[in-house]
């Protein structure tokens, strides 16, 4: 088993020995030489990893914010539907909005994703009870 300790540090192998890389990429021990294309690819990998980490962070936060907002709107629409059903009439515009909110992108945070998925399921159940389907 080979473990990587850092982008510019050495590579630790399962036998406890450490392989140092030279230059600006990294190589696993025992690979000898590398072709020009492979060397160029490994040399650009460390910078790409940092950019990917930054790109992954922003969309996850944005997805969570959108999912949180959709969850709050689902709660509001489900509460309004409950009141409408108790009064004996459901507003078709609210039902369409509930159908729209019952589908959407999942949150990056697992707990938030589970909560919103539960709300979406509840909305779909209510729509199915009324003979409607989500968009």
Q: What does this molecule look like?
A:
- With 135 residues, the protein is mainly α.
- The chain is 61% helix and 6% strand.
- It contains three helices and three strands; from the N terminus they run βββααα.
- It has a three-stranded antiparallel sheet with strand order 1-2-3, with no helix packed on it.
- A hairpin with a 4-residue loop joins strand 2 and strand 3.
- Helix 1 packs across helix 3 and helix 2 packs antiparallel against helix 3.
- It is elongated, with a radius of gyration of 26 Å.
Topology:
Blueprint: E1 2-4, E2 11-13, E3 18-19, H1 36-87, H2 92-101, H3 110-129
Antiparallel strand pairs: 1-2, 2-3
Helix pairs in contact: 1-2, 1-3, 2-3
Keyphrases for this structure?
3-stranded antiparallel sheet, 3 strands, mainly alpha, about 140 residues, single chain
**Share of helical residues:** 55-70%
Order of helices and strands: EEEHHH
**What gap, in angstroms, lies between the N and C termini?**
49 Å
Biggest sheet features: 3 strands, antiparallel
Helix/strand class: mainly alpha
Average of pLDDT = 74
Strand content: 5-15%
Order the strands across the largest sheet as they lie in space: 1-2-3
Low-confidence stretches: none
Number of strand elements? 3
Give the overall silhouette: elongated
Number of helices: 3
* Structural Rg: 26 Å
Short description:
By secondary structure, the protein is mainly α. It has helices spanning 36-87, 92-101, 110-129, and strands spanning 2-4, 11-13, 18-19.
